[in-house]
Amino acid sequence: MAPELLLDSNIRLWVVLPIVFITFLVGVIRHYVSILLQSDKKLTLEQVSDSQVLIRSRILRENGKYIPKQSFLMRKFYFNNQEDGFLKNTKRKVVPPSPMTDPSMLTDMMKGNVTNVLPMILIGGWINWTFSGFVTTKVPFPLTLRFKPMLQQGIELLSLDASWVSSASWYFLNVFGLRSMYSLILGQDNGADQSRIMQEQMSGAAMAMPADTNKAFKAEWEALELTDHQWALEGVEEELMSRELDLDGMFSKELPTGIF
Amino acid sequence: MSKNVLIIVFTEMRDKLRKWREDNHRNSEQIVDVGEELINEHASKLGDDIWIIYEQVMIAALDCSRDDLAWTCLQELKRQFPGSQRVKRLAGMRLEALEKYEDASKQYDSILQDDPTNTAARKRKISILKAQGKSAEAIRELNEYLEQFVGDQEAWHELSELYINEHDYGKAAFCLEELMMTNPHNHLYCEQYAEVKYTQGGLENLELSRKYFAQALKLNNRNMRALFGLYMSASHIAASPKVNATVKKANVKYATWATNQINRAYQVSYARCLL
């Protein structure tokens, strides 16, 4: 079994806790800085209009059974008609927003980098330089020797267990661990949540891509072609008259009667 | 009405205003009473809430022709949020209330120049046309608006109302269909649609109206108007000479059922009166 090291309790007081505070405060500052630097995303009229059209087409597919068959067919024809159906024939000009051509995306990316990656590197390096030369804490699970150079920066002991880590690793642990604390204190969707932002960067460009509009239209067209009209009101009278009306609470003063 | 509003505590007043704001009540006189007192006596305790209360009270004041109060609210909001489009819209509404339609229109145009996607300004322009009685133009503008913003339910409802006033029931039915699709569980839209279809007349429309009255009743068993509508449409169809015997029999059955339910409802109300 690996020998248990007894660490100086000063380490706990002067290293572990300060690193936690520093990470937390830096995160909070990052959040407020990102709010200050936020630029408003201006949507064009066309984008708003297109998104609403897509919603309407989807509603038609889902709830078309509540309107009469004739009306449903009329709307389906409007959307899908061969010659002049809206979904079939509207082509939007597609400008893929690559970072080079679109200046606003470039500045957004830069701002993202400055507020998130840069402080992490700076503070990580500073902590490494300040709190170097000693072991900070022990991770509760055993690690292989290959982790030693990564987690034990500054400690030149070949025989030391890889579970004992330096302050830099404790800092990184904090960065990811305090994520849930940020959600608690700053509310959801806060600017200090680094890992979420990194995930977004990894999953590709932003959601509202204009190129998608044409594809979205095509997808809606196909989906609408396949939809059939099953009138929900076929047997409504029989269903209604199968039992007496529930008149409980009618004419009571507490019931809000009518609309204002 | 204000006898029921016996509110003394400041927090109660603020909560009442918030409830009215969230439920979109239009009880302007009450809002003016409560809001004016809140603003004059308890402004410091409200904190940041005060701005939205200013907006709410201002609109209520315009409804009650209290231009003095509206002006004070507007000044406070202008001082706090200079250059805000929301405040500009309120300024436009005040001009509308004073019937200075030209100035109001210019105000809304300036908002639209800055932000062409601002729906509130466009809708106010249309309501100016409606206030001036130019319903044909209002309908045209509203149609154009809806072409761009297909999802605006308030606008669809307004358009259906305008069409009903012009007796263009076919187009009103179209608008109500949009509303029924987006709100399939709202019994009032079903009922209004059924009424429009009933007014259009003709056997097919009567059948449709009967079905939609039944749907409205299914969604809300206590909708008396739909119950009467069901009775009337069913008896109309039964009385029409063009129907065959089975349809006649079915409709007579529906009408009888509706009559029974109406009688029950009257008994319930009579029993309540005796209590």
TrEMBL record, chain A:
Topological category with respect to the lipid bilayer: Multi-pass membrane protein
TM spans (from-to): 12-33, 114-135
Presence of keyword Disulfide bond: no
One protein family per Pfam: EMC3_TMCO1
Domain of life: Eukaryota
Cellular-component GO terms for this entry: EMC complex
Subcellular location: Endoplasmic reticulum membrane
GO terms under biological process: protein folding in endoplasmic reticulum
Keywords per UniProt: Endoplasmic reticulum, Membrane, Transmembrane, Transmembrane helix
Xref: SMART domains: DUF106
Subunit note: Component of the ER membrane protein complex (EMC).
The name this protein goes by in its record: ER membrane protein complex subunit 3
Originating organism: Salmo trutta
Top-level taxonomy: Eukaryota, Metazoa, Chordata, Craniata, Vertebrata
From TrEMBL, chain B:
Superkingdom, natural source: Eukaryota
Endoplasmic reticulum keyword on record: yes
Family: Belongs to the EMC2 family.
Matching SUPFAM superfamilies: TPR-like
InterPro entries assigned: EMC2-like, TPR-like_helical_dom_sf, TPR_EMC2, TPR_rpt
UniProt keyword annotations, A-Z: Endoplasmic reticulum, Membrane, Repeat, TPR repeat
TPR repeat placement: 153-186
Designated name of the protein: ER membrane protein complex subunit 2
GO CC annotation, single: EMC complex
Phylogenetic lineage: Eukaryota, Metazoa, Chordata, Craniata, Vertebrata
Cross-referenced PROSITE patterns: TPR (PS50005)
Pfam families from the UniProt entry: TPR_EMC2
Its job: Part of the endoplasmic reticulum membrane protein complex (EMC) that enables the energy-independent insertion into endoplasmic reticulum membranes of newly synthesized membrane proteins.
Chief site of localization: endoplasmic reticulum
Record membrane topology: Peripheral membrane protein
Keyword Nuclease: no
Quaternary structure note: Component of the ER membrane protein complex (EMC).
Subcellular location: Endoplasmic reticulum membrane
Domain EMC2 TPR-like: 88-197
